[in-house]
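Subject: mismatched residue count in predicted assembly?

I count 286 residues in my input, but I want to confirm that the predicted structure covers every chain. Input:
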Amino acid sequence: MARARVLIRPKEGILDPQGKAVERALPALGFEGVGHVRVGRMVELEAESPERLGELCEKLLANPLIEDYEIQTL
Amino acid sequence: MIWGVLQFPGSCDERDALHACTLAGGEARLLWHEERDLGGVDAVVVPGGFSYGDYLRAGAIARFSPAMEAVAEFAAAGGPVLGICNGFQVLCEAGLLPGALLRNKDLRFTCRQVDLIDDVGGTLSIPAKHGEGRYYAPDDVLDGLEANGQVAYRYAPGQNFNGSARDIAGVRNEAGNVLGLMPHPEHAVDPLTGSTDGLRVFAAVAAAGARA
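Triage response: the counts match. Full output below for your records.
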């Protein structure tokens, strides 16, 4: 079993309103100078065939049209 | 004409869709998501709701259901398919329609009446209710959709509340037999609720079936 973590984020250039909302909230809390906030999701899993993780991401975990993914083996 | 309306765990508009299909002409029946056999229906409606809880991404899990495998084959053979709201999201995730639906630009789930313009310049007033209806496709894909006449419905000026690319509310596949839109024609079929314009969407789907 290989443990892996998959990070999924909106593709560069696609409006991410969640990231914008977080970004706008920060100055009110005294956090100045924070920009380019992007909100994505993280999936942790254990796989018997880690070589198939890319395919798994393409087919289900991410929508390649709108999201980039990054596989980290742990 | 026999309409089949898919039902997933989490669908919520399948009853209104059944009613709308009946009013549009014909008989309508529910098709459970675990059924691999569509039972010889002439047209399929993938209704609105929150199939499989919208987990991961709206429509992402529903596309792998046995019924959707059957719908993909039905569509490939030229059968007419209409996806409404969550159904549109499912059809995009399944690759039966181009593009994707993203969170509304203001992050709000919005329920309101919208004016749409169809591809022959007619206007329709029907309700929309969604939180993830911002249509997106890369510019070259959008150019292709416009060039091929695949943009079926646009939000009228000032009505694009979710931030959809090029005001797109609904698209067809290249063959023209698969149609998806975010607003809900099945909720606009009775004068009691203010508009019967939704019936025109069902009529267009029936006509696509007659041509196939």
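Helices of chain A lie at 17-25, 53-61. Marking this ticket as 'not a bug'.
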